[in-house]
Known about the structure:
By secondary structure, the protein is of the alpha+beta class.
Amino acid sequence: MSAPIRLEREAPAARQAGGAGAIGLFLTMLGGVITLALRSDALRPPRNAWLFDIVGGGFLLVGLVMLILGIKMALSTRLPETIVEVDRRSVRAGQPFHITVRQPGPIRLKSLRVNLVAEQLTRRDVWRNGEGRTHTDRRLIHQNNVLDVRNITILPGEEVARHAEATVPVDVTLADIEGEK
């Protein structure tokens, strides 16, 4: 058997946290400007000022939630990262493969889950203004839980490893997910 293949994140956690925080900050500021601009003496509020309050308040609320989540995600980057390894890179339908999940400590987890997600990737060339690029559409076609570990505490210097075997279903079709068309 070959050496395990470590799966990498699609985007680093710090970049995701920074993106969420930046978008949250922008929406918070936009909502604040909309709400405060109508409250200033320089502008006479229009007859439907309540509509601007709702829109500004909506931006402010969504922005604050995203900003808080961005801060929470940034703080979570200090935790040890979960390592996921598989025994082969590409898997065909009906073919089993092995998954290893390693979680270094120190950390206390309520749940450590691994889900098998099957996607259909459709690549197509798009030409605009004489320039070509490849566009990829992703469509979820199957998802199921492969590993579920509950209430685990890992001490500093320790590592917990769990192994599971998964099989990509043979009989999953797009109609199962999207309904009849």
